[in-house]
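Structure first, sequence second, as always.
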């Protein structure tokens, strides 16, 4: 009498779904959070006058040479609040978790979906992802660095190009990851008298580096699996980040997703430090203003009865600031567009 297809509605499984898992974020590892009590402030940038050599010889009966104190300029930061909210409607709760809605007793009853948790995760993840995008834009921009602290590779120089100039001679290959990394380390050292302690490499690019003929040849004398193998090759003793964060650049929830890699084909080395320290030389900070409740990223919840909804909001006030460009080095286009 009735079409069964119109009477039966497929239930929703309670323990299976398809979607992107939460991804690792690297922005706060490259430009660490530095909590501050004020929305904006100035800070001193000292010159190198205290590295000058002053004549100090004094003859008997004469006054000592008097020298000026070191000079400084000033820079500023200004935090800006980033805030997102998401509603949880009463009708949504009812439809999700009541047996008269999308739930089905035969398939475990209520769907066990927690809209408050999901809303909190959504707005928090969006705040973190925006910070990730902004940090990536800074560190991948050649204009961020002094001229001596950036190089742009092309063609045969790019690390996925294994072309031999002389057959069977691995050192005739123009691309040279180890040489480029050593040049980056030396540039930072020459400018700051400190070595970089963090290097970011696209995750898929690591495989290309490990299989580069120049590197394979140099590993003949010791194992790639040795903990200090990379240090032996480059002198780099810091932490290596294999970055793989991405975002949907369609910029519209209803548009076809366009998944974009945030790290692109670049490699960068930086000096990283946390906290507020006098006379430091680090690449950058994320100055983060502390809220009155002591949190740097508070989540608020409130009820709007007119909408029959609860709302969840996450906020953060911050300013990403490159405080010492000399403390970083960018290898632009280390891999070709088609490398991965």
């Amino acid at each position: 009498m009735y079409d069964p297809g119109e009477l039966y509605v497929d239930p929703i499984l309670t323990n299976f779904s398809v979607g992107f898992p939460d991804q690792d974020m690297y922005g706060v590892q490259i430009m660490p959070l530095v909590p501050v009590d004020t929305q904006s402030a100035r800070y001193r940038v000292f010159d190198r006058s205290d590295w000058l050599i002053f004549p100090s010889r004094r003859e008997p009966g004469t006054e000592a040479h008097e020298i000026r104190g070191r000079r400084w300029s000033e820079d500023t930061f200004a935090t800006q609040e980033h805030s997102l909210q998401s509603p949880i409607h009463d009708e949504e709760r009812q439809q999700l978790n009541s047996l008269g809605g999308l739930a089905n007793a035969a398939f475990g009853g209520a769907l066990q979906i927690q809209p408050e948790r999901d809303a909190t995760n959504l707005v928090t993840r969006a705040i973190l992802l925006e910070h990730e995008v902004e940090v990536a834009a800074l560190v991948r921009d050649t204009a961020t660095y002094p001229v001596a602290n950036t190089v742009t590779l092309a063609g045969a120089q790019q690390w996925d190009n294994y072309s031999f100039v002389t057959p069977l001679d691995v050192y005739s290959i123009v691309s040279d990851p180890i040489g480029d990394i050593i040049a980056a380390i030396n540039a930072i050292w020459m400018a700051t008298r400190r070595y970089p302690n963090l290097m970011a490499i696209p995750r898929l690019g690591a495989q290309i580096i490990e299989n580069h003929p120049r590197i394979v040849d140099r590993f003949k004398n010791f194992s790639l699996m040795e903990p200090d193998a990379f240090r032996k090759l480059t002198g780099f003793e810091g932490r290596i980040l294999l970055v793989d964060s991405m975002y949907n650049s369609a910029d519209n929830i209803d548009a076809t997703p366009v998944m974009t890699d945030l790290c692109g084909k670049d490699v960068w080395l930086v000096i990283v430090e946390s906290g507020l320290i006098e006379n430091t030389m680090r690449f950058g900070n994320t100055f983060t203003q502390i809220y009155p409740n002591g949190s740097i990223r508070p989540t608020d919840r409130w009820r709007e009865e007119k909408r029959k909804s609860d709302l969840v909001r996450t906020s953060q006030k911050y300013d990403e600031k490159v405080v010492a460009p000399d403390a970083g080095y960018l290898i632009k286009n280390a891999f070709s567009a088609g490398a991965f």
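Margin note: The chain is about 25% helix and 25% strand.
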